[in-house]
Structures are given as structure tokens and as C-alpha cells.
Amino acid sequence: SRRCKIIKHSQPMTGTHPFAYTAPYGFHQLSCRVTACRVERHNNRTLTLKKHLDMTKVYSSAASYNLHASSQTQKQIDLQLDSTFHAPLSLSVDTTVSVAHLPAYLTSVANGTATALYNQRAAEKISKHAAGCAEQGRSFMPFVSDSGGGIGPAPFVYWLRDVYTAELRRQRADGDDGSATRHALADLLKELSAVLVRDNFRMIDRL
Predict the structure, then answer these.
(1) What is the Cα–Cα distance from 129 to 136, expressed in whole angstroms?
(2) Mean pLDDT across the stretch 159-172?
(3) Which of 15, 94, 122, 168 is the most buried (most CB within 10 A)?
(4) What is the mean pLDDT of residues 2-14?
């Protein structure tokens, strides 16, 4: 089996270990690729988002391991959403989770917020997937999270709010008071946070 080259039983992250200062924060553990937990955390965020969007009647959704962002490449996205009335009518979503205080992202979070990190990771995803999605007539939206539970970038957050606003309007147009939807976005955010805490613990515990 694969073993982490950074964290070893024979050389724990204490004392003079070069990464000892990061141990209390789990920076390496929360980004290590050795165990399957990193992929599980990523997939669980996608599936949690899908589950809650499926509770609305704004989008129909599909999530699988064979959703391609382009007809020309094997690049994959995580979630495909389609609507008959809410723009964008066809939307591909790709999920990513980043540990904000890893060296690769320190510059982005130096001002004390995660906004620059969300924008940096979103730009990377857009560069990778947007053109391929566009050629298939689909819009593209990155779903960026940091390991502390924040989400972005701003366009994704605004879109998410719009989805639940559209669902509330749809329900009221059908004669419903929309009470079931008023707290639905908060419920989604709470579950995303709870699932992330669980999956972060698993990453640290299993390494």
C-alpha cells in the first residue's frame, strides 16, 4: 500500500521535523493524497450539493464519474444541472477543496480572507473546463471550498442564492407559501459544514 513520505511512525511531526509547526493545524493531513479520504471528501461535497438541489424543482441533476467537460478530451466535471426555466439552463459544476495555508496558497490568503484563494482556484478550474463546456452549449461554474468550511467564489454563492429564490417564487406561483424553502439554503450550508468536519477528521485519523 502507499505510504505518506511526510508523516511516518518512525519520524513523527514533532521536534525538529521540518513540518512540525503545521502539525496542530493538520495542513499536510488535510491535503495528503495517499489515502482515499481526500477523494471521498471531494465527492461528498458534490453529492451533498446535488442532494439539496434535487429537493428543489429548479434543476435536474446528474453526478457520475463519466461526466466529460468536452467532447474532445477526457477532462471530467462533477455535476451536470439542467433547467427548463432558470438561467443558466445547462450548467456544469466542478468541485475542489483547498487547504488555505499550504505554501501554494499563502500569497492568496495573506490579506486575511479566503476570497483571493477562491478566485485563484476558480480561475484554474475555468481555464481547464469552461471552453469545453461552452462548445457543448453548457455554462460552467466552479464550486470552491477551503478546508475550514468556506465556499466561493462569489459568482457561485450568488448563483446558489438565486436557485433558492427561484424555487421560492415557483412555490408561491403554485399557491404554496414557500415555508419549506425559506431555510433550505441554510440547511444546505449546515450539512456541507458538518460533512466537511467529518471528512477532515477522517483524513487526519486515517493517515
Answers:
(1) 11
(2) 94
(3) 94
(4) 74
* 12 cis-preceded (ω within 30 degrees of 0): no
Backbone φ and ψ of 94, nearest 5°: -125, 135
Task: Say how far apart CA 135 and CA 138 lie, in whole Å.
Answer: 7
**Helices and strands, number each (H, E), in the chain:** 4, 5
**Rounded Cα gap, residues 86 and 170, in angstroms:** 11
Distance CA 21, CA 1 (A): 27
Measured CA to CA, the distance from residue 46 to residue 50 in angstroms comes to 6
pLDDT digits (tens, 9 = 90+) for 136-153: 899 999 999 998 899 999
**79 CB-side CA count, 13 A:** 24
